[in-house]
Write a structure and sequence with these properties.
Elements (H helix, E strand, L loop, with lengths): L1 E2 L12 E5 L4 H6 L10 H8 L8 H10 L2 E5 L1 E5 L9 E5 L3 H6 L4 E5 L1 H10 L1 H4 L3 E4 L11 H16 L2
Parallel strand pairs: 2-3, 2-6, 6-7
Antiparallel strand pairs: 1-4, 4-5
Length: 163
């Protein structure tokens, strides 16, 4: 059984909560979200935020908070083989109440289909917030190019911000 090693990233100005499923092996080693070099999350978010690609944890943290995002994952603990979402079992979900109580979250976005399924199963009844499903930025989602991911993510996030 693995326990999520990364604290949620948010402040009281966060408006959009982005949830993944569970950190990859590389993210668990680095102690920060989306640390696998082939995950397109930071490239996509930098383009959405119109910022240069952040390199350090501090730069990534600053960009996320500056643009009113919050980051975390659905799972608190689980069994998983490597980084494969398809192997996840025996899930205990994270408690989102501390983020939802502290921030002004307008929308919850999930990064990929597994995060969507887990959110629906474990969190929707608690939050009552329907998640907006974004295509996974994982390198395993090879059918989506970075440009295609950017276009979808950007359109979705801009629609939330303009509401």
């Amino acid at each position: 059984m693995l326990i999520h090693p990364i604290r949620p990233l948010y402040n009281n100005e966060a408006e959009i909560l982005i949830l993944g499923s569970f950190p990859s092996v590389k993210s668990r080693e680095e102690g920060f979200f989306y640390s696998h070099p082939q995950n397109r999350f930071w490239k996509v978010m930098a383009r959405i935020c119109n910022e240069s690609l952040p390199a350090t944890i501090e730069e990534k943290t600053n960009m996320i908070l500056k643009h009113h995002f919050a980051l975390w994952d659905v799972i608190h603990s689980c069994e998983i083989i490597g980084s494969a979402d398809s192997t996840i079992k025996n899930v205990t979900p994270n408690d989102l109440s501390k983020i939802l109580n502290a921030a002004n979250i307008k929308a919850v976005c999930v990064n990929g289909k597994k995060a969507e399924a887990l959110y629906k199963k474990y969190m929707f009844n608690e939050t009552g917030i329907k998640a907006i499903v974004l295509p996974s930025t994982s390198p395993a989602n090879a059918s989506w190019s970075e440009d295609r991911l950017f276009e979808f993510w950007s359109n979705s996030i801009n629609a939330i911000k303009n509401n």
